[in-house]
């Protein structure tokens, strides 16, 4: 395959905005180490695809970064923040590790499960919420806590959880 | 005395801004070093003198580590900061990134000068979006002010620094897993030797330090290694960020002098919640063996004191447990974590963490067998030393610690199929 064809192929991958964002990450690493941008690229295309990665998207990332597809699958399956199945518009990541647990994260999970009518690991039928149990998020001083999108919410009570969820589209 | 090093600007309004950092002498040390072309060996000696030990958990002397690199060797070298803060209970580096990112940048630039690196990366865990954005904004300010980039302050020294975001994997806090991760691979630790100082990022000589270690450097060099060392105690120089969480009234990160009595730290954290009794303390992140409360009240917070008590200071993450907690349930949660986070590379860890979790889980759920405590002892002794990295040890140590100090509680669970602690044994203090 000629390099010109590769270039054209790459221009057809992703939207211009996504490409620009990935390119900014590629520029942080030595030119021969484009692969270093794979974690950022997966995050960016995941965000642009409603929060999850299809095999096709992973293949596109592989093509864009000149990586074998299997090397991209390895990364996508190793790290917990990548989703390989559809998720809700809002992914609620609840920490249940020790500091949160002894400050009542069980009650937060119970409240969320009851309110949303789903269990940990599930998505509501309307596709609005996914509930996910996660490991320590490094905010133990604000236990119990969860993360939705890029935002941390700390010192949770069932009432606070309700007001946060009420405020989400 | 508090807030003398990493938190020394915490009282300022928006302390993360460059102008605020500079109002307290920020970047003066870097500027002086570059102007005077201070010999790197002198800086290494000063850091050695300070007694600074790796604040990520391993406690290895930072100055000694810097000395491992041959700065005159040809080709690229890298300085890497480990902000992949993931040890359960630890939340201190997040506050450095959020409130004092410039001091970390200055520390990294100085480290780069010392080891002859022209490029550096700060590996920030993927969930830390707000800290990442703060750090990025600080990088931008530092570049614009000429503290990063080519020919810094006209000295001929080039240094470019970037953030790298993780994506959720505890193991990437292990330094060689972290390097693999920057290279765009699964975060599986490398076999050592060779150590990163010889074969690190992209196969080049690399120094990896924790966020708190690097952020301490400018102040150490500003006030002198002796000043820093004398803030602390024998073998534990300086100050430390302690992240106190659990059943306390005022959890948070406290920068205090090494050697502070635990009782005083507990007081800073507001004392026990709802006036309950202190049952136990996990003094250095969840891998550190538990210490019974009564014993802990007599200890000071420094490497030697905690080690003599059979545990470790680790990352300085102090998890305080009151008497409503069932230790079986606490250990079950911790064992689940290590099982979940084992990278799967080494059989003793991959399989052993599964055994530990499943056995503690069946004890917790009333299915325990009389032989289970010996089985746990057995598995916990057979993981350490048989794996590429320390995650296996980290999984085994809390098990051994719990069985050493709270064996009765586990035996009661096995015999009666329920907890000897009142209530649901789940920290029902709230």
Description:
The complex is a heterodimer of chains A (169) and B (430). By secondary structure, chain A is α+β, with helices and mostly antiparallel strands. Chain A contains 8 helices and 4 strands. A 4-stranded mixed sheet of chain A has the order 2-1-3-4, covered by helices on one side. In chain A, a hairpin with a 2-residue loop joins β3 and β4. The longest helix of chain A has 12 residues, at 105-116. Mean pLDDT of chain A is 95; it is low at 1-5. Chain B has 430 residues and is of the alpha/beta class. Helix content of chain B is 43%, strand content 13%. Chain B has helices at 18-23, 28-36, 40-50, 62-67, 93-99, 101-115, 129-144, 175-182, 211-223, 225-231, 262-268, 293-296, 303-308, 327-341, 347-364, 372-382, 391-416, and strands at residues 78-83, 119-124, 160-165, 206-210, 239-246, 252-257, 260-261, 278-282, 291-292, 300-301, 317-322. In chain B, the strands form 3 sheets. In chain B, strands 6-5-11-8-9 form a 5-stranded mixed sheet. In chain B, α5 (93-99) packs across α7 and α14 packs antiparallel against α15. At the A-B interface, α3, α5 and α6 of A face β3, β5, β11 and α14 of B.
């Amino acid at each position: 395959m000629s390099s010109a064809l590769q270039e054209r192929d790459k221009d057809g991958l992703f939207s211009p905005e996504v490409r620009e964002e990935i390119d900014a990450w590629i520029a942080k690493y030595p030119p021969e180490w484009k692969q270093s941008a794979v974690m950022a690229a997966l995050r960016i295309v995941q965000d642009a695809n409603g929060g999850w990665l299809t095999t096709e998207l992973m293949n596109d990332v592989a093509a864009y970064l000149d990586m074998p597809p299997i090397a991209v699958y390895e990364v996508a399956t190793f790290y917990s923040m990548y989703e390989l199945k559809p998720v809700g518009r809002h992914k609620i990541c609840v920490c249940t590790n020790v500091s949160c647990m002894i400050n009542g994260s069980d009650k937060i999970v119970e409240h969320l499960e009851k309110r949303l009518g789903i269990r940990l690991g599930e998505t509501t039928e309307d596709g609005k919420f996914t509930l996910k149990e996660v490991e320590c998020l490094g905010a133990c001083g604000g236990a119990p806590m969860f993360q939705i999108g890029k935002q941390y919410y700390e010192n949770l009570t069932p009432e606070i959880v309700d007001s946060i969820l009420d405020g989400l589209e | 005395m508090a807030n003398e090093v990493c938190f020394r600007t915490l009282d300022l309004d928006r302390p993360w801004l460059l102008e605020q950092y500079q109002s307290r002498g920020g970047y003066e040390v870097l500027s002086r070093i570059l102007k005077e072309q201070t010999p790197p060996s002198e800086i290494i000696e000063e850091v050695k003198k300070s007694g600074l030990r790796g604040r990520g958990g391993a406690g290895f002397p930072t100055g000694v580590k810097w000395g491992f690199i041959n700065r005159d060797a040809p080709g690229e070298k890298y300085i890497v900061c480990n902000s992949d803060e993931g040890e359960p209970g630890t939340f201190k580096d997040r506050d450095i990134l959020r409130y004092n990112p410039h001091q970390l940048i200055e520390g990294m630039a100085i480290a780069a000068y010392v080891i002859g690196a022209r490029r550096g990366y700060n590996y920030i865990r993927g969930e830390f979006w707000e800290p990442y954005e703060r750090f990025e904004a600080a990088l931008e300010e530092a570049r614009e002010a000429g503290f990063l980039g080519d020919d810094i302050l006209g000295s001929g020294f080039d240094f470019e620094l970037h953030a790298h975001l993780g994506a959720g994997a505890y193991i990437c806090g292990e330094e060689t897993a972290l390097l693999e991760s920057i290279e765009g691979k699964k975060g599986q630790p490398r076999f050592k030797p060779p150590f990163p100082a010889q074969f690190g990022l992209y196969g080049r000589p690399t120094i990896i330090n924790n966020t708190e270690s690097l952020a301490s450097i400018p102040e150490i060099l500003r006030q002198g290694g002796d000043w820093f060392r004398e803030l602390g105690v024998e073998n534990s120089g300086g100050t430390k960020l302690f992240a106190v969480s659990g059943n306390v009234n005022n959890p948070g990160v406290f920068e205090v002098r090494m050697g502070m009595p635990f009782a005083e730290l507990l007081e800073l954290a507001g004392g026990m919640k709802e006036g309950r009794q202190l049952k136990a303390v996990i003094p250095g992140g969840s891998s550190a063996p538990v210490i019974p409360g009564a014993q802990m009240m007599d200890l000071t917070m420094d490497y030697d004191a905690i080690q003599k008590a059979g545990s470790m200071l680790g990352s300085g993450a102090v998890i305080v447990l009151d008497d409503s907690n069932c230790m079986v349930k606490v250990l079950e949660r911790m064992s689940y974590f290590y099982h979940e986070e084992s990278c799967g590379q080494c059989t003793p860890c991959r399989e052993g963490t599964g055994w530990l979790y499943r056995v503690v889980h069946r004890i917790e759920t009333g299915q325990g067998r009389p032989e289970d405590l010996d089985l746990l002892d057995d598995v916990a002794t057979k993981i350490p030393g048989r794996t590429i990295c320390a995650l296996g040890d980290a999984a085994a140590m809390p098990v051994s610690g719990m069985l050493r100090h709270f064996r009765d509680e586990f035996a009661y669970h096995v015999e009666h199929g329920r907890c000897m602690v009142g209530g649901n044994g789940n920290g029902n203090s709230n």
